[in-house]
Amino acid sequence: MDETRIEGVNMKRTVRFWIALWAGKILTIGLLMAGKKGTTLPGKVASWIDPEIMGHLSMAYNDGIIMVTGTNGKTTTANLLANILRAAGKDFAFNQAGANLVTGITGALIQNTHWSGSARASLALLEVDEATVPKFCKQLSPSLAIITNFFRDQLDRYGELDTTVRMVRESLGDATVLVLNADDPLVAQFGQNHSRTIYYGVERTPESRVESQETREARFCPSCGTVLDYSLFHYGQLGIYQCTGCGFHRSEPKILAQNVTSEEGMLVFRVDKTGFSIALQGYYNLYNALAALTAARELEIPDKVIEKGLREFVPQAGRMERFYLPQGEATLTLVKNPTGFNQVIQTMIGVAKPLRIVIGINDLAADGRDISWLWDVDFERLGSCDDRIEQVICTGLRAEDMALRLKYAGVAVKKLVIEHSLAGAINGLQENRGEGEAWFILPTYTLLFPLREILDSRQKSTRELAGRKEHGEEARA
């Protein structure tokens, strides 16, 4: 194994490799002792010492490397699959913290590597940022690649969408099994001339329509440029389509979700004769479940184990994550591009309750400097149901821009509040909540974890107070 080569990169473990590995492990231990996640910095230092360390480490995974990439849903998909793998009793390396750039992936592999250089597990599950895929695949070849979807996202960082799609497609070798979203033509095209392809898709959802005014990334056939003809839209460019020019069309999915419904915060669906459910809101999350299910079947995991893994899944940080505050339940979910935000709006509108919302917009590097994408979000849907909106609190560095966008979308100015303090924004929710309201907190990336810490601390305080009261009552009894 020490003499293996991959795509011309020398995989012999040199002195540089061992220095990089041990430096990364020492840093990891130090950061974990300090209460930090301990992935990105060790990976950064190790990669600086040995730029090929990710390739060296990857050679130990004899059961394969699963890559999850795409614009939206890759974190949820990876965590759904991880829960299935745990239900199946499998050990695996995983960048669960969502550090999906080269440094974070390297750090996760270092954590899973012994001082001797051997891996703790023989399987790796790695979420990979779509712009990182070329660098990732230059050092290793995934045995299975899940591709969720492609949408415009941070143009100042990724560039045009066509460029991102082309880079990902050109990076994947013929030996990799592709798990593809059949309903997204930008993803489905990857299966052309690729023999090892598995498609997943949706028959229809209660929100599927024969016509759509939504922004679509793929109006034109990726093969010949003819306008695609849709017989059904699920959301964005996802649906059932065909090209009248060259014949390109939505392939028949091997894994097809049918009888799709939403019941008490659960998505319920059937694949073949087996029923599945996940504790997530929003029909867009159905695709994440299908991607994980498809990969699990390819790994020969039984349906009853897959069903258990999906059913017992707990949403990860900021992905329709629920917090139980003294005044009631609040849902926190990341927003980062027009299509994803539109689906969150659709989910909120689908809740038959008055709405009180916090929207946090930053324009730091991780969020995307260009916030013009807010004008591509269909906030007019919120304006059209203004009677159900109790309040929208705008926070973050671009709170004023967000409030202006909502004003032009038709949300009453008297319902708009600008509050730059994150704690103040959450206070505004807690102090003004009316009976029967639904709370949603929608931040961009750099606001996600600060808001989550505030919500988590108040949730814990609620539990601690309840515990003290219960203990006091028991003592008095």
Automatic annotation (TrEMBL):
Keyword annotations: ATP-binding, Cell shape, Cell wall biogenesis/degradation, Ligase, Membrane, Metal-binding, Nucleotide-binding, Peptidoglycan synthesis, Transmembrane, Transmembrane helix, Zinc
Catalytic reaction annotation: beta-D-GlcNAc-(1->4)-Mur2Ac(oyl-L-Ala-gamma-D-O-P-Glu-L-Lys-D-Ala-D-Ala)-di-trans,octa-cis-undecaprenyl diphosphate + NH4(+) = beta-D-GlcNAc-(1->4)-Mur2Ac(oyl-L-Ala-D-isoglutaminyl-L-Lys-D-Ala-D-Ala)-di-trans,octa-cis-undecaprenyl diphosphate + phosphate + H(+); beta-D-GlcNAc-(1->4)-Mur2Ac(oyl-L-Ala-gamma-D-Glu-L-Lys-D-Ala-D-Ala)-di-trans,octa-cis-undecaprenyl diphosphate + ATP = beta-D-GlcNAc-(1->4)-Mur2Ac(oyl-L-Ala-gamma-D-O-P-Glu-L-Lys-D-Ala-D-Ala)-di-trans,octa-cis-undecaprenyl diphosphate + ADP; beta-D-GlcNAc-(1->4)-Mur2Ac(oyl-L-Ala-gamma-D-Glu-L-Lys-D-Ala-D-Ala)-di-trans,octa-cis-undecaprenyl diphosphate + L-glutamine + ATP + H2O = beta-D-GlcNAc-(1->4)-Mur2Ac(oyl-L-Ala-D-isoglutaminyl-L-Lys-D-Ala-D-Ala)-di-trans,octa-cis-undecaprenyl diphosphate + L-glutamate + ADP + phosphate + H(+)
InterPro entries per record: Folylpolyglutamate_synth_CS, Lipid_II_synth_MurT, Mur-like_cat_sf, Mur_ligase_cen, MurT_C
Occurrences of domain Mur ligase central (ranges): 68-296
Binding site for Zn(2+): 221, 224, 243, 246
Superkingdom of the source species: Bacteria
Annotated EC: 6.3.5.13
Name of the top EC class for this enzyme: ligase
Molecular function (Gene Ontology), one example: zinc ion binding
Residue ranges of the TM segments: 15-34
Active site residues according to the UniProt entry: 370
Residue ranges occupied by any Lipid II isoglutaminyl synthase (glutamine-hydrolyzing) subunit MurT C-terminal domain in the UniProt entry: 334-447
GO biological process, one term: peptidoglycan biosynthetic process
Pathway: Cell wall biogenesis; peptidoglycan biosynthesis
Cross-referenced SUPFAM superfamilies: MurD-like peptide ligases, catalytic domain
Keyword Phosphoprotein: no
Biological role stated in the UniProt entry: The lipid II isoglutaminyl synthase complex catalyzes the formation of alpha-D-isoglutamine in the cell wall lipid II stem peptide. The MurT subunit catalyzes the ATP-dependent amidation of D-glutamate residue of lipid II, converting it to an isoglutamine residue.
Subunit structure: Forms a heterodimer with GatD.
The family this protein is said to belong to: Belongs to the MurCDEF family. MurT subfamily.
Protein name, per record: Lipid II isoglutaminyl synthase (glutamine-hydrolyzing) subunit MurT
Species this protein is from: Desulfosporosinus orientis (strain ATCC 19365 / DSM 765 / NCIMB 8382 / VKM B-1628 / Singapore I)
Gene: murT
